[in-house]
Structures are given as C-alpha cells and as structure tokens.
Specification:
By secondary structure, this protein is an alpha/beta fold. The chain contains 13 helices and 16 strands. Helix 5 links the parallel strand 7 and strand 8. The longest helix is centred in the middle third of the chain and has 18 residues. The structure holds alpha-D-glucopyranose (GLC).
C-alpha cells in the first residue's frame, strides 16, 4: 500500500493532539549487534517498517545508562545512552533519521527516582549522615530506640516496605531511605531547589538534541506530604489508592507547580516541545489537572486502557475522558497496552469483568484465555480506538497480534516484582518479549544471523505465524489490518481531533457513533446480530462483512 506523506496537521505545532505514536520497548524491538538485546542500530534499521505501518511518532522507553534492575527505569546518568543500546552519537543519528522520515520522537524521563548507582546517591551514602547530598533524596531516622523500624508504613509498588536501611560509612546501621519502587530506585527529594534545577537542565539537554517530546514517568508521585504521614487503612491498596483524596504520596497538589516550570522550558523552543504524563490518578477530572493550558500537553488515559471489553464500561471511559479533557482544552489519549500491563489481546480473551481487568499491581489475572476470541476483539478494538477523537499510543507487537506470554520459565523472569512479591507475582516480562520479525524459529529475525547470544527473553515457537514477514501481504492478518486502519486515519484527517456523537438508536451492547463530516464507527459487543450498512460505504471492518455480524461477534466499520 502506498504511504502518503504526513497528514496536514502532522507538521503543525499541535501535531501531538492527534498523533498516532508507536511505543518502542527498545530492549525488545530489534537487536542490531547480536548481543540478544534490542538497540539503537536495530531500531534504526527497522524505521522503514514503522513508516510503512503509518505511525506519526515514536516513544522510546528509557535508554539511559542503567543497572537495569527495573528495565531502565533505574537511571544512573540522565545525559547519556546505555552502552547496551548504543552511544549518544547513535542517538543523534537516530533523531536525524526519524525527522528525515517525517516522524517525531518522544523519550522517557524518570524524575521520581534515580538508580542507587547514580552519582548523587552514591555520594549521599558515602558522605555520612550530615552530608548535603542526602538532601537530594528522602532519608529519615528509623522508629524505636534502635531506629530499626521503618519511618512509616508506606509500601513499595513492587512489594514489601518502601524503606531500606543503610549502613553508614563507619559500619553502623544508619537511617532509612524511601523508594516507592525497588530499593535500587531511591525517591528524589523534589523539595530541593537543586533537584528542580537539575531536572530542568536534563530536559533542555534532550530538547537541544532535537527530541520532540518527553514522557514523564510516575508524574503523580514526585511530591510527598510534609511529615510523611502513615497511609490510612484505605490507602494501602497501592496504585488504586491514587484515587483517594489527600493521599500522602500520590497526586499531591505540589506536582503542578513543577510541571508549570517544565512547560515554560518546552515553550521556550521555536518549535515547542511536548510532554506526556504517566499519571495514575483516580477520576478523569484529576487527570485533566495535569494537562491544563500551562502544564503538560497530554496524559495517558488508564481508565480506557484498563476497561473491560464491555460496551457500558468502554462508553463510560470514553465519555468521561472526552469531557474532562475538553474542559481544559486538551486532547484525549487512547492506548490498549503498554510495557507494564498484560497485553490486551490476552485480557480480551478472558471472561470480562464489570470493573477494570488489570492494574499495575495485578499482573496475572486468573481465568482461561481464548486467544481466538481475544484476537477478534483486539481487531475490533484497534478500529474503535483509531476512530476516537484525540491521540493514540500503540505498543510494539500489538500490530502483530502478540499475546501475553504467561509461561516464561521462572529462571528467565527479570521484573523485580517476581522477587519482591516472594514469587507470587510473575511481573511484566510476559508483555516485553523480543519482537518476531521473520523466519520459522526463534529468534525470528530479532537478532542478526551472526548473533553471539540468544534474546534476553525466550520467544514462543508459535510466534512463527505472527512474524511481520509472515503477515505481510496476508489481507486477513492483524498487521495488514493495522496498516489499512492507519492509512485510513492518515488520509482522513477528520478522524484525528474533533467531536463524537453517540447514536441514540443503538442497542445497549452496541457502540455506535458518528464523527463529522459523516464517518460512522460501530462495534458489536453484544449477543444479537447487527444489521449491516451499505457495503459500498464500508472503509474497513475487523471481520469480513459478507459473513455478517453474528450474535456474539464484534466488528467495527467506518462509513462515509
Ligand atoms: C512506570 C513505568 C514502569 C516502572 C515504574 C517505575 O510505571 O512505566 O515500567 O517500573 O514507572 O519507574
């Protein structure tokens, strides 16, 4: 299929309001040097694939030097590239090529915590109890006569206490430091002016290099309540508790002042740079506060991502997001999967619950998986998502119909959640496997033929049918569906930003809406048959319409 140039608005200053952005989980995208880990050379070589897919922008997960305790979200140096991924000059070449191809690039900054190997934290440990470097982190004395109980009852998202006690340079047991994630990820003290200056300088470093935007990791965690009060009984449920008012470490008012400062940095460029918040907060109205006109540009919509495959749940998530974002003039941002959650094809292949089927703290929901059902629903889901007003994030591999790999051998698991949960939660490795590109057997073209090592996580042999090569040219494949859908969105700019009107005559289990100047999207999530539209008007459907939308089937079409 011919690839047209960027849609008109893609060059405009507000390209981000309706861009389709592809999330590159670098470790698993393409291995250029044969060490079993994805890298910048591999990505560079595969950029034509992304252009052919039809996306507007890329978001790359953290690429900085890191001990990789948490897949790179433990950053040891914010102004360099981890050698496993390449060099700063590889990054420069990559940015140039991305722009030459008409794409944009977002990177991922981790401001809530550094790696415990960051020079700041090492200096804070080495300098002893009274050194100034300790003020860059959150150190507190322990409780009790010996100080051997943690300062409060906060919990790590990965399991266990959020506090670790240090050994002072003289060998005595010392104070404790806070880590809302792994112990190797000490939380930074955002009350420190030095911390604030340093991160603004890091933003400028990457913006000066030509990066178009930045995703902000756990944007809702950076500010803690004065005095670090204990969590109340209802706050203990970790991420879900972000919805509770006045939570001591999630969604504090103070984060907004930080982001107003960051917005001024982004706006100081002739072509303003953009931000994307990862903020797991309760109601859409709370999320909207992060994207007010003088704060961040966009924020992930986790209500939609975690919604079950039910018409009522999806309709509520769509409506609440659209109205909350419209109230502050921001676009809604839709995604179905990312590197932290069970792949949506697998989630949709399970019996659907009334509430969210997945949160960060629950990686292995129970229940048998029907992959054929999940695939059919995933086909409908992407057409629905691409017909919604706003921006879209695709997670690498969803265009191939990859499923969650839930039976990885225990000895291969790398997510810190596995150890921290006492081997009760297998963590997020199952959605992070290396991409299958070509061939009949692992590594499926992920690594070059001369590779020294096998991929860092083993791929299932069944992915032979799902390689990009196997699907290319197969009109019924997931990959060709994505290509066609992205092509349609690209040639019809009206499918980007704009309004949506629900069809009031549709039965409750059918999602049906129109978009000016006459597009129509219909998804049958129910048990009854849906009458077919005039075939001549169908732009795209997730199942061949000749067969009709049988009871229990799900399909989407777009009609003019
Ligand atoms: C975010 C990232 C996740 C990481 C965590 C801690 O939620 O998406 O992968 O583990 O932050 O940095």
């Amino acid at each position: 299929m011919a690839v047209p140039g960027n849609r008109p608005s893609a060059d405009a200053r507000d390209w981000w309001r309706e861009a389709v952005c592809y999330q590159v989980y670098l470790r698993s995208f393409a291995d250029g040097n044969g060490d079993g880990v994805g890298d910048l050379i591999g990505l560079y070589q595969r950029l034509p694939y992304l252009v052919g897919l039809g996306v507007d922008a890329l978001w790359i997960n953290p690429w900085f030097p890191s001990p990789m305790v948490d897949g790179g979200y433990d950053v040891a140096d914010y102004r360099a590239i981890d050698p496993v991924f390449g060099t700063l000059s590889d990054a420069r070449a990559m940015i140039e090529e991305i722009h030459a191809l008409g794409l944009r690039l977002l990177i991922d900054i981790v401001p809530n915590h550094t790696s415990s190997q960051h020079p700041w934290f090492r200096a804070a440990l080495a300098g002893g109890p009274d050194c100034v470097e300790r003020d860059r982190y959150i150190f507190r004395p322990g409780v009790g006569p010996e100080g051997d109980a943690p300062p409060n009852n906060w919990r790590s998202v990965f399991g266990g206490s959020a506090w670790t006690r240090i050994v002072e340079p003289d060998g005595r047991a010392g104070s404790w430091y806070l880590h809302l994630f792994a112990p190797e990820q000490p939380d930074v003290n955002w009350d420190s002016p030095l911390v604030r200056r340093e991160f603004e300088s890091i933003l400028r470093f990457w913006f000066d290099l030509g990066v178009d935007g930045i995703r902000i990791d756990v944007a809702h965690a950076m500010v803690k309540a004065p005095g670090l009060p204990d969590l109340g009984p209802s706050d203990i449920e970790l991420l879900a508790s972000a919805a509770h008012p006045d939570h001591p470490h999630w969604d504090r008012e103070g984060v907004h002042e930080i982001f107003r400062g960051w917005r001024a940095v982004a706006d100081s460029y002739p072509e303003p740079r953009v931000f994307l918040a990862e903020a797991c907060v309760g109601a859409s109205e709370r999320l909207a506060r992060y994207v007010r006109a003088d704060e961040l540009h966009t924020a992930f919509n986790f209500d939609y991502l975690t919604a079950s495959w039910r018409a009522d749940t999806l309709r509520i998530a769509i409506n609440s997001s659209l109205s909350a974002m419209a109230a502050v003039g921001a676009p809604a941002i839709w995604a179905l999967s990312n590197h932290d959650v069970v792949r949506h094809l697998t989630r949709y292949g399970r019996p659907q619950s009334d509430g969210p089927v997945h949160t960060l703290a629950n990686h292995s929901p129970p229940g048998p998986v029907d992959l054929a059902l999940g695939t059919r629903r995933a086909r409908a889901a992407v057409l629905l998502m691409l017909a919604l007003p706003g921006g879209v994030y695709l997670y690498q591999g969803e265009e191939l119909g990859l499923w969650e790999v839930e039976d990885l051998p225990e000895e291969t698991l790398q997510d810190p959640t596995w150890e921290r949960s006492g081997h009760t939660d297998r963590g997020r490795d199952g959605c992070r496997l290396p991409m299958p590109w070509s061939g009949d057997a692992p590594p499926f073209g992920f690594s070059p033929d001369h590779a020294q090592k096998v991929p860092w996580l083993p791929q299932p042999p069944q992915w032979k049918q799902l390689t990009a090569q196997a699907q290319t040219g197969d009109e019924q494949s997931m990959l060709e569906l994505y290509r066609k859908a992205l092509h349609i969105r690209r040639v019809h700019p009206a499918l980007g930003e704009g309004s949506l009107a629900w069809d009031s005559t549709a039965v409750p289990d059918v999602l049906s809406f129109t978009r000016p100047p006459g597009f129509r999207c219909v998804v049958n999530l129910g048990q009854g048959a849906v009458p077919l539209p005039d075939h001549r008007e169908v732009l795209l459907s997730s199942v061949p319409l000749e067969a009709g939308l049988l009871p229990g089937d799900a399909a989407v079409w777009l009609a003019r």
